[in-house]
């Protein structure tokens, strides 16, 4: 794959890395992290299916095929399964993410990789290797363009889903380095998504699903012999999606340093920007024994990027997922901010609306200084008794500095998927966590087709 400049093209560098990402070659911690993220993604998808957020696409994309539509009786062909499962995994914003990319790699690539693994009757170790390679491409390209890409109006997850999915698919297709490079290069044209679209969670996940499908198609096309432009990342992708880029982070330590441990996991629903404020408010309430009735007013300060996604006065459940005030209110009133709380009915509850009216969210440009290494929040409360209380966090819980444990994620799966899969939930969890030793991923695929009990 020759370069127009004489320097090794980034697509070629990534292609060589992807070609070497094979089962049995991953560090043990990367294998464990990838396995855990499959279970976490299944939990995120279950929360979407329970809210019926899969139904529109399921009706729009009829047919049959080998891949299960998770948590439903339906099966679809490779591309449709990738779109639907990706979109529903992203639909409640309950999946993992990375503050250094502003994106969510799991929903962007795991559903497509899983569907392709099922079609090829691959073993779990091969799927884990594919996921690890896809994550690395997602995280490295994401670091190169973030936060500039968001400030230009793009959604990182959708932009990165295509090349990341192409990388994962290339592993499962066992493409050699040159073919894998072409797959990634072709996919760079197939990721599309706007940050503004995030404010409608009913339709926005489709841009992630379609971009993931584009990456899958790119890898299959490259496997047939199609070629991409060698310098498309440097001369096209970077220029299109960011005003300021860092090309060095794409290749620095590639194959030696893995980024998956730098992603975060979630225990709250809604946009990640809500989570530091929710955690800070909950910690303050716990520390001082506050009840919602004690709060006269709450002032929440966040960084500029977080405020850009904020919906101050949500009118429906979709908008509530981007409302810091709503997220804090349900956490303090209900005890959790799980995706099941983000409904029109809960938003309409008088207690929720009344507490929201006492919460003000505003920007604090001082918080921009550490972004994205720190994405924190400052919460100040004035009580009816006249107390002035404050709590600040540099980062939400679940970040690498304060990670959730395997037991936490298993509990998250139990809470979201238990009601959906019934008696099968335990078996699904056990198979997902034993993925590296699973001879054929279709054993898990078949269980995920279970009808709700």
From TrEMBL:
It comes from the Bacteria. InterPro entries: MmgE/PrpD_sf, MmgE/PrpD_sf_1, MmgE/PrpD_sf_2, MmgE_PrpD, MmgE_PrpD_C, MmgE_PrpD_N. Residues 271-430 form the MmgE/PrpD C-terminal domain. Signal peptide: none annotated. Gene3D superfamilies: 2-methylcitrate dehydratase PrpD. Residues 14-244 form the MmgE/PrpD N-terminal domain. Belongs to the PrpD family. This is MmgE/PrpD family protein.
């Amino acid at each position: 794959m020759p370069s127009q400049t004489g320097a090794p093209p980034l697509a070629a560098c990534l292609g060589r890395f992807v070609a070497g990402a094979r089962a049995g070659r991953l560090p043990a911690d990367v294998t464990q992290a990838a396995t855990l993220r499959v279970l976490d993604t299944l939990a995120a998808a279950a929360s979407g299916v329970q809210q019926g957020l899969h139904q529109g696409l399921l009706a729009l994309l009829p047919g049959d095929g080998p891949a299960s539509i998770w948590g439903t009786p339906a099966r679809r062909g490779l591309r449709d399964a990738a779109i639907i499962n990706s979109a529903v995994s992203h639909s409640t914003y309950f999946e993992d993410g990375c503050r250094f990319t502003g994106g969510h790699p799991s929903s962007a690539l795991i559903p497509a990789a899983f569907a392709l693994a099922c079609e090829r009757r691959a073993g779990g170790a091969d799927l884990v290797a594919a996921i690890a390679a896809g994550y690395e491409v997602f995280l490295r390209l994401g670091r190169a363009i973030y936060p500039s890409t968001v400030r230009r109006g793009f959604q990182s997850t959708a932009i990165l889903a295509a090349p990341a999915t192409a990388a994962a698919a290339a592993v499962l297709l066992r493409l050699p380095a040159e073919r894998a490079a072409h797959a990634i290069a072709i996919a760079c044209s197939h990721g599309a998504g706007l940050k503004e679209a995030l404010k409608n969670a009913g339709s926005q996940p489709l841009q992630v699903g379609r971009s993931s499908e584009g990456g899958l198609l790119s890898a299959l096309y490259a496997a047939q012999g199609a070629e991409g432009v060698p310098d498309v990342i440097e001369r096209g992708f970077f220029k299109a999606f960011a005003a300021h880029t860092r090309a060095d982070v794409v290749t620095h330590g590639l194959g030696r340093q893995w980024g998956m441990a730098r992603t975060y996991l979630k225990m709250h629903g809604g946009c990640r920007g809500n989570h530091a404020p929710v955690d800070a408010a909950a910690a303050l309430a716990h520390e001082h024994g506050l009840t919602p009735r004690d709060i006269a007013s709450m002032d929440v300060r966040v960084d500029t990027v977080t405020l850009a996604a904020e919906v101050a006065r949500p009118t429906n459940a979709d908008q509530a997922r981007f409302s810091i005030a709503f997220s804090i209110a349900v956490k303090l009133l209900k005890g959790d901010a799980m995706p099941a709380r983000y409904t029109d009915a809960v938003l309409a509850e008088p207690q929720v609306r009344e507490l929201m009216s006492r919460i003000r969210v505003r920007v604090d440009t001082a918080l921009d200084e550490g972004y994205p290494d720190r994405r924190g929040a400052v919460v100040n409360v004035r009580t009816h008794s006249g107390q002035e209380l404050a709590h600040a966090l540099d980062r939400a819980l679940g970040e690498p500095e304060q990670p959730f444990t395997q037991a936490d994620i298993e509990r998250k799966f139990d809470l979201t998927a238990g009601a959906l899969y019934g008696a099968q939930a335990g078996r699904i969890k056990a198979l997902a966590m034993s993925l590296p030793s699973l001879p054929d991923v279709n054993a898990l695929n078949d269980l995920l087709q279970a009808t709700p009990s």
